[in-house]
Amino acid sequence: MFPGGFGTMDELFETLTLIQTNKLSKRLPIVLYGKSFWSDVFNLEALVKHGTIAAKDLDLFIQTD
Known about the structure:
alpha+beta, 12% strand
């Protein structure tokens, strides 16, 4: 996924949900390009801290430049 708006976020969350719920027949790598963008708009550590996702969910994707 490259930086984007609501449409990009929608597709990202939909894909992550499909992976989490085992609806996909094979593992799909999720790569977030642009570390500074994604770290600004997508605070995953806060989601773990507040208990809305599990720490292991952070392994569903990688961030890179």
